[in-house]
Amino acid sequence: MSAVETVIREIREIGFEAEEVTLPNYGSAVALCYPVPTGRLRGRTFRMAIGLQDIVYPEYPPHFLHVRSLPDPALTSHTTYEWEGGDWTAFSVPPSDFWDRLPPEQKTMRTYFRRHLQRVWGEL
Amino acid sequence: MTYEAVLTEGMHRRACEFLLRHFDRGQRQEELCFALWRPSTGADRVSALVFDLVLPETGDRDLHGNASFDAAYLSRAVRIAWKKRVGLAFLHSHPTPGWQEMSEPDIVAERDRIAPPARATGFPAVGLTLGTDGAWSARFWTWTGSAFRRNDCGKTRVVGGRLRMTRYPGGAERKVARKALRRTVSTWGEATQADLQSLRVGVVGVGSVGCLVAESLARMGVRRIVLFDDDRVETHNLDRLLHASRRDAGRHKALVAAGNLKRSATASDFRVEPHIGRIEHSDLLPAALDCDLLFAAVDRPLPKDLLNHIAYAHCIPVIFGGVYAATKADGTMGQASWSVVAAGPGQRCLRCAGQYSTSEVVMERDGSLDDPTYIRSAGSETRVTAGQNVFAFSANLSSLMTLELIRMVAAEDWWPEVGNELTFSLIPGGLDRASYRCGDHCAVRPKTTGGDAEPYPFLEAEPRRDSAVVVRFDDALRRGRNLLGEAVGRILR
User: Fold this and answer.
1) Is residue A101 classed exposed, middle or buried when 0-12, 13-18 and 19+ CB atoms within 10 A define those classes?
2) Residue among A56, A64, A99 minimizing CB distance to B457
């Protein structure tokens, strides 16, 4: 199973619908609509994509997070670009502080969403 | 193609416990078992990585001073190897120390009884004989199309905290050079000197640390040094690059170092092999896999990750060295420290030692680490971007790295066990040494002895940048331009 297929399966297991997309200049990613659970944008839903370009998942974690129509992000962005008729912002936010120490069975999207994505959105 | 056999220290201990147990009890009784192996294939060398024993069950063998195996035991072992898609090895012990010659019954057993059914695995049979002092002799039985040919292994290596070798006595052994190495040999003896000289050592990264390491090796008498670097000498390197001068500006660092090493080397048949390129390029990896040990003097996460992979999957120890120096906001020195990590089977890997993370590898691959604007604006200063260094720092670090090699090769049983990780801190001042284990969930350690069956996922299929001919021409052209520029400059002045 490819990294994309694995990530889509894992994201569906935690209750989100996800699809494979190809981002301009960023390659393969998995996109979904995400209701923000925390931070200043709590309660709003954003279309976002988790970048999977060439990674060997789950040993190597996703790195880029792409968000559509994000108002005044508090984090420094990597780039902004147009895609699917909207403005997208890419952030380099790897889970570098804990991913390598996780047991193999916990290197999943469930852990990624719970431990990493929520804190990123809390800062966005 | 040359052949070698490799065992981790753990596998070696297990094999010795079983194969030498009768001798240990004072009985003159040989022992035998089958084992499994995976290949590690370089440019010129295939190594059999022996990773598991298939121990005999009751009735599987006869012990009568010599030892012989039952056909059912052989069949069982072949079946296990075939199912796991690995090679079959046959191990037995002899009642004498050192390299073991094969008796006629040994040859008949391996060539005529084991090698034919072992072909079903898709790999040649490998035979190993263990002497009472723990020395291994090994051979591959390859099929020529009409017969099985015996290919004696030039070396058998036991890899772990130490690097022990048994060398084939019929190989092209060179006499230890007497005069130039007199002091060196008198320090640790001819046997250790012969071991050191027989190594093929790779130096990945020939910057300030790497070229000092290579210089040490060449002067110590190491006969084969392989260099990997894609960078060129620049003026701002000259405060740290051994033997480099303004005339070398623009030349490839690996070529500059190779030329210097030829002048410094004490071995009479010294050979240096410079590779212009990055080790993560797929055409250079085989050259690295021909090495017995690799020095890693690189600061980027991707080559560190690859070298870490090689240390475990291919059982080639990697001695890593890194400098970290930082300045304060007022421009004065804030911190300077350097560390050495010896990675390989039984040791903590570079990833668990915190020398890089998988996230950094991903970021390097997508170019984020090379985007200075983004890095500055994000307010992050990674290990890669720090960059400050001083010749004296590199000199100390390279010495510590070389001493790790000496320890691995020269250490005897009475030497105390010491940690394989060192850190020197200029501020406050002091050297710490410790031994650690990989984390419980290390993703690298399970790849130990994976060999070719455990490919590294991020090799870049970039064609070799420069052939040797193009490099020589290009190099000469650049030297000519520099000389012409200097001449014009003098005229204009």
Assistant:
1) middle
2) A56
